[in-house]
Amino acid sequence: IQHPPTVWEFYILTELSRRSVRKAGQFDLNQRIPTVYRLIEYNDYSVMFMQRAPQTLLVCNNSRKELVSYGSDFANYHISRDRYVPLCYQLYYSIEMLRIFDYMHRLRIIHCDVKPDNFMVLHW
C-alpha cells in the first residue's frame, strides 16, 4: 500500500520484467525481482499486488533464516546484540545490489527510489 498513491514501483517492476531477456549463463534479473500482478489506484492511496517476498533487507535475519519481529531490521538485530553485521552478509548484499543496478542500467532503466526496503529477499 502506497500513501500517497504512486504508480512508480509498478511501472519499474513491469518494465524490468518486460525488458529482461533470459539467456543461458547470463545474469537473470527475473529471479531477483518480484512478479507484479496488478495495481489499483485510489484518490489517496494505491495497492500493488505482487509476489510474496518473506522480507526486505530491513526485516531479514539470515543467520537464523527467520523473520525478526516486525519493525526491526537485519542491521538492528546485530547492533542490539553489540555486534556488527557480519562482513560476509555485507559483501553478499552489496554485490547483489551492484549486479542488479548494472543490469538495470544496461536495460536503460534508472530506478530513482533506491533504499533498503525496496530490496526484497526472494530466495535464501
Automatic annotation (TrEMBL):
Keywords: Centromere, Chromosome, Kinetochore. The keyword Manganese does not apply. It comes from the Eukaryota. One of its GO terms (biological process) is mitotic spindle assembly checkpoint signaling. One of its GO terms (cellular component) is kinetochore. It is found in: Chromosome, Centromere, Kinetochore. SUPFAM superfamilies: Protein kinase-like (PK-like). GO terms for molecular function: ATP binding; protein kinase activity. Residues 1-124 form the Protein kinase domain. This is Protein kinase domain-containing protein. It comes from Rotaria magnacalcarata.
